[in-house]
Amino acid sequence: MSVDLAVALGPLRLKNPVVTASGTFGYGTEFQPFLDLSRLGGLVVKGLSVRPRRGNAPPRIAETASGMINAIGLQNVGVDAFLAEKLPALAGCDTAVIANVYGESLEDYVEVCRRLEGAPGLAAIELNVSCPNTALGGMHFGVEVTVLARLVGAVRRVTTLPLIVKLSPNVTDIREPARAAADAGADILSLVNTFTALAINAESRRPRLHNGVGGLSGPAIKPLALYMVHRVATSVALPIMGMGGIMEPLDAVEFMMAGATAVQIGTANFVDPGRSVAIVDGLRDWCASHGVARAADLVGSLRTDAGGPP
Amino acid sequence: MIWNGQVRLLENRDIGHDHFLAVFEAREVAGALRPAQFVMLRVGDGTDPLLSRPFSVARVGLGATVDLLYKPYGRGTRILSGLRPGTTVGMVGPLGRPFPDPPPGTTRVLAVAGGIGVAPFPLLGEHLRRLGAPRPHLLYGARQAADLVGRDLLEAAGWSIEVVTDDGSEGRRALVPALLDETLAALGPEERARTFTYVCGPTRMMAATDAVLARHGGAGQFSVEAFMGCGFGVCLSCVIPLREGEGEDGGYRRVCVDGPTFPAGSLAWPQGLGA
In this structure, is residue A310 part of a structural domain? Predict the structure, then answer.
């Protein structure tokens, strides 16, 4: 059977629900040796700041059980170089290009979004309010609900692009920042960013990362992320991009059942640079073999009523 | 194009003293491989270990195999050493910037290797022979005689070899940067200016070698090792700082795509090492 993979997340329409996650996909062109970018629903570029950032001192990653902890520190080319060099290189790619935005202050976020406004070929903005690896900004904006609301409101006033807010899982109840972002004008929520984590070298009695702590990603966090996606999906009306350890097509199916309209593929891109497109194909196959005519029909289809087998 | 797919392990031979030679049938990778380039291997079959591992390529067999010389010391290399011929694993490659050819006018080609850092040199030897470069001479240092491996591969690839060990169990008891120092000092200034030196080994050894090259005004190229998340430039985890004044931004370079080869004198070695 033919399967309709197209999904709509408020004002953002994607040809399929598979999007690559910020910080795992460079500026897109790095993956052209491995896959056809036009096969993707969308791609989110590395977090952009007003000025270029050098990032943290190495070591920046540590491998853990079915996961990895990173503290890159948002090394990026800056928004101006993105607009001058990186974005034009994606012209001709038939996929939704999404700019991830990072700031150390509310003014930084607003300024980056102002410069992105009207950029040809840009489909949406994703606000990174959940990076655990920078001294200033980042996660601070995502866990303080009043600060988050002010930030989202300020950005909303300077951008006409669909606005995605990427939530931190490092909160007591993720529904609170989700609601705050929704009330302040976000169009879409993406979740979850990495979990703040620590890896230790017992021999040296030191953290394995120069930064000390980092953010945990990979299959290790998938059940935690699924729970949070489900929690937000059942309490906030906005569409969701779900992510957290998606490696296989079946993982994407599960996130959609939990309530995500689209999914983001992150750490898997490091392990297998072709995996995102393989997940598009695998999702189509899964839908076809399960009689699902539209991928959108999967969204929120998790059954929690009593009585059925697990 | 960069290959990303499954390849078959043809041979995984213990070549003695806990060193291995793995031979993969990988025509798509082998054909394009240049010296000091590397491949990423997905050695596990599940999600633990999660990340791929980088391996320098020692040899390309008949243009069709990718041969890796390695020493099991971490989780990934230990898993690899236990794989049987016939097993398929995921491989991405070739990756990274190769060693540059010796500059025009080079009359002497040297290499300095420390331990398993010798891995890229058989392939470099074959390449130099094809270029018609002067016969290369390898200064090869290791902790002990047992760690001097792959000499048959190196000799077959045209290298003459001079060894030193930390404990004097073979060759002189010396560190290999000191051997380079003597070798360069014995050359006349003109000859020294026409010498090009390739370097690969542990960080401490490379830092000391860089200082020796600087002292003699010697030209050369280093191949650097790093823990990598992806191998193709996006995870930004394998970065290494440039020396102050090098590069437009004086910032970090990615070992995987900006390297693994870097010119002598361009890198900022960790504190306490180097000049």
Answer: no
